[in-house]
Amino acid sequence: MIRKRTIDRSANRPRSNLWQKCTNLRSLKQIHASMVVNGFLSNISTVRDLIFSASVAIPGALKYALQLFDQIPEPDIFMWNTVIRGCSQSLKSDNAVHSVSLYTQMEERGVIPDRYTFTFILKACTRLQWSTTGFGIHGKVVRYGFISNAYVRNTLINFHAKCGELDIANGLFDDSAKAHIAAWSALTAGYAERGKLVEARRLFDEMPIKDLVSWNVMITCYEKCGEMDKARELFDNVPKKDVVTWNVMISGYVRCGSPKEALNMFKEMRDVGEHPDEVTLLNLLSACADLGDLENGKNLHSSILEMASVSGFGDARTPIWNALIDMYAKCGSIERAMEVFRGMKDRDLSTWNSLVVGLALHGHAVETIDMFNEMQSSKIRPNEVTFIGVLVACSHAGRVDEGHRYFSLMRDVYNIQPNIKHYGCMVDMLGRAGLLNEAFEFAESMDIEPNATIWRTLLGACRIHGNVELGKQANENLLRMRSDESGDYVLLSNIYACSGEWDRMEKVRKMFDDTGVKKLAACSLIEGDNDKAMLKSLLSSEPKPRHQIS
Residue 325's pLDDT is what? Predict the structure, then answer.
């Protein structure tokens, strides 16, 4: 039986200005201590404000809020809503899960939810993509009579749209919902995230009023689909932009492989007086890394240090420091990358991987292996990316036995199944060391079909070590996979030339001419650049299971 619902219009906002006095966790604890001395539960209104401050107003105080909440024998609806809200808005997915658990506890204790409860819990389900739970909450909304409430209805539209149930979201998008711009934005975003550009643009064009969220949603839609020209066209028409608008464009250019345009966009951003945030800096560091633009990277580092001194974010922004390490490493400034690394107190897996792979990328084999050993000592568990760096380092240093040992360590100790990238590293290591027969045997014994990168690596090794027959075998496998790479013909031709087999060389040249493949313009590469190209190729290669080979 449903209890009679009583409405307390003041139940969902603080009744005093206590929360304004709590600017940090320390002041919150001081006020809490004072309340304990004077009788913690003597003033329910003040308890409400304390819960609100810890759950919503003070960053990083949510855990303390939940501890406070557990001390209250009979929390009222405002207190339940506040902790559910705090958990649903937290960046940690575990807290979003806890908000659903709190809602269940609330129902079990006979507390009747109100419209605020449903908006908060539906936001948690949306973040978690928990469609089944969300459908259950939808049923509760209908049962308790809140389906006609604009805020709840808009949240339901957003939930179903984000979870891919566009037909249901459309069904809720009736005349009453169309009066709210939030409903338009939610449905537009739903179509956009499913790649339905035509429907998303139609809704956007039909919006009676376009708020900034709507503009950002539509620009993001084009950006994610790689249509940067259309994104730029919309961007130029936005009446008033915020940092999110600029970030969407900058990240879009980085994602689409246009880092120069990203840096130009940042210049425009500064020219109009818009200040960057953490997202801006992460994307710009990525752009500098892609370009090898050390000078702009250094300038960004200075800006980050200035922001850190003002806001005091320090090691709380580990991704920023990780991006700095990655940028310096890719720009060849290993010493600066090491300085950033050594200056960090809190390091995660990405921190170590950025440095391990960066060292390997630039041929610092001994330092790479030393860093990996230090990583193991720090109790950070390596992943597949870590081992790519380590195996490349072994390849560059000619440490074949160590390479085999690390390959076994990855499989047998860390239970990481090798992929095409790891196999490629091993083949390269054996080929560099002149162990061509072993390299071919290894390639043929792989659990997955060798790709063009592996056969090309073997072909290159055969050229260096002058093995004509194995080079021919590698080339045949390459031609079986594809025949439009001029470099493959050139490599085999050179192998025959080096061994004085001029007739075979001429046959390869004729085969090359008959295929109609155009020879690429010649270029000169130093050994280090060859190593970088090989590693980048390995990092971007995709595995192809044997059963898919025709």
Answer: 95
Tokens of 379: 């109790």
| 3-state SS string for 209-229 | CCCHHHHHHHHHHHHHCCCHH
- Asked if residues 48 and 79 have their Cβ atoms less than 8 Å apart, the reply is yes
Write phi, then psi, for 488 (nearest 5 degrees): -65, -40
Nearest-10 Cα torsion for 509, 511, 514, 520: -50
Tokens representing 134?
């969300």
Q: Is the CA virtual torsion 272, 274, 279, 284 positive or negative? A: positive
Task: List C-alpha distances in Å: 423 to 142, 420, 460.
Answer: 56, 5, 16
Rounded to whole angstroms, the Cα distance separating 89 from 107 reads 21
- Please tell me the distance from the alpha carbon of residue 442 to that of residue 174, in angstroms, as a whole number: 63
Q: C-alpha angle 133/136/137, rounded to 5°? A: 90
As a whole number, mean pLDDT of residues 76-94 equals 93
* Structure-block tokens of residue 312: 């005091």
Coil, strand or helix: which one is 449?
strand
- Which has more confidence, 7 or 497? 497
Cα angle vertex 218, ends 247, 230, to 5°? 85
What are the backbone dihedrals phi and psi of residue 544, each rounded to the nearest 5 degrees, phi first? -130, 110
**Which band of pLDDT confidence, cut at 50, 70 and 90, is reported for residue 30?**
confident
Segments in 292-330 forming alpha helices (H): 294-311, 318-330
Residue 235: C-alpha distances to residues 216, 217, 337 (Å): 8, 11, 35
pTM flag (> 0.85): no
